[in-house]
Amino acid sequence: MSPQVVFLFFHYGKIPGYLSHSIEHVRTFNPDAEIHLITDGIKDASRLDIFNIRKFRIEEFQSEALQQFKKAYRHISCFDEKFERFVLERWFVTETIRKSNPNPIYVMLDSDVAVFGDASALLGKLPDCPICMGGDNPHFTFIRKSISDFLAFITGVYNDPEKLEASRELHLRHKSGDTIYNLGEMEFLDLYMKQSSNMQNYERQTPDGYVDSNIHRTEGFDSLKLRRRHRKIVVWRQENGVNIPYLKKGDDLVRAFLLHFQGPGKRVFYRFNGGGLFNSKAGLFLLNQIFQSKTIANVL
């Protein structure tokens, strides 16, 4: 029997509508999985109760490692300090949750991701390491073992005056333009993966579908060239009563395991399998127009 999968959603700030779409898709395709939502404070998330999730505040998960991080943290980023710190704190909280119940495999999932498959089907294809990430984006990350070494690495950088000073200089030098530098989650992930086998990429092209990293990255698939960016062409099909997305590559269609609606892609993140319009023939036709017509895509 495959290990139990637990999905972890962390969300900072106001609860957006697309978060419920993301949770709904996890529940649709992973009906028996446990889903946790951890926020930065008390939120009105009662509309999410229908998906049978467990809700927590991040303050409920204290640890010595987290306290050490909080003391050491220095803000070197163009992003909001509370948000930047929350994004890093979620890794410490994930380890606290994992320690309390080490048997499941945990999936850290961004709130702008729509899942169209059973996550347990991917477990046997993951690298044998604690942190398994899909490319350079932690939007769908598997935690298999203790990540305490990664947490110590983060805190260690903040406790190193020379590294902090070098980071400040880089931040000031690249504070605007196309090459901004922030000492935050993405930088820590990049640095740690380069030096440790504890974090590795998994193969995103799987027998169960392609794990999309960003709907605006072409990644070898056909795309619509919109005014300011590309967007992958998505072909929608109804299979066994649910809508399934396929990515187009010439004459071939590749099933998508998930779609990541990063940035402006959130505008076309709908309840693809929430009943109603999109589960009808007319709705499926509309979806295909939205995701295949350049004219319509430029409006949305």
CA(first)-CA(last) distance? 43 Å
- The number of helices is 8
Order of helices and strands: EHEEHHEEEEHHHEEEEEEEEHH
Shape: globular
List key phrases describing it:
300 residues, alpha/beta, 6-stranded mixed beta sheet, 32% helix, 24% strand
Task: Give the SSE layout.
Blueprint: E1 5-11, H1 17-29, E2 34-39, E3 54-57, H2 64-72, H3 81-100, E4 105-109, E5 113-115, E6 131-134, E7 137-143, H4 148-158, H5 161-173, H6 185-195, E8 199-201, E9 205-206, E10 209-211, E11 223-225, E12 230-232, E13 234-239, E14 242-249, E15 252-260, H7 281-292, H8 294-299
Parallel strand pairs: 1-2, 1-4, 2-3, 6-8, 10-15
Antiparallel strand pairs: 4-7, 5-15, 6-7, 9-10, 11-12, 13-14, 14-15
